[in-house]
Amino acid sequence: MSQGRPPSVPDAAAEALISPATAYRYFASAEALWSEAAFHAGAFGETWLADLDEQIEAAGPDVAARAEVAVRTLMGRMLSDPAPYRQAAKAVLEQWFAQQDTPPDDRAPVRAGRRTRTIRTVVTPLREQNEAAAVRIEHPLAVLVGADAMIALVDAAGLDADEAMTTLIDATRWLVSGALTELASDESRTKSTRK
Fold it and tell me: How many C-beta atoms lie closer than 10 Å to residue 97's C-beta?
């Protein structure tokens, strides 16, 4: 990309000092490779992710506030410029389909893990108190962050960008509030049965 041309999978493999066969495990086509590289370089480069981490940390230790910052920032970006995120979702689906004849243990990951990384940053204060509770909140938050959430709200529900954002923020608040309430109730029951 820095040379101003879309790389082929073999070109990228040579640059990365790996075999073309290994590269094709991760990128079924040059389009998938180009999409991921462009997405990473522009949409979610390391600098942008570091800035997002800072914004999340600035929200303080309240997991609900941290989750709202993450959703507003990530999904605001996706809703205002959906094309690169839709292209990335397309590449992920193509990669998944391309590996269906590959044994499960030999399949390459189809996602880079950016969503998981951000959600883990969101729940860090809770993780320091209760690892199991943090994991229980991490997993459902994954439904609210990503191109799939945008596509569901815009395409399936027919919402415009503002309505989709309002829905995502509401869902984030309800999810975190409900999860924290349920976890506190579980903890309270556990303490009372120990007495």
Answer: 11
| Helix, strand, or coil (residue 159) | coil
Asked if residue 118 lies in contact with residue 49, where contact means CB atoms within 8 angstroms, the answer is yes
In the chain, what are the domain boundaries? 44-194
pLDDT < 70: residue spans in the chain: 1-6, 34-46, 111-112, 187-195
On whether the CB atoms of residues 61 and 129 are closer than 8 A, the answer is no
pLDDT digits (tens, 9 = 90+) for 17-43: 998 888 887 777 777 776 666 666 555
- Rounded Cα distance between 70 and 119, Å, is 8
Buried b (16+ CB within 10 A) or exposed e, 130-157: eeebbebbbeebeebbbbebbbebbeee
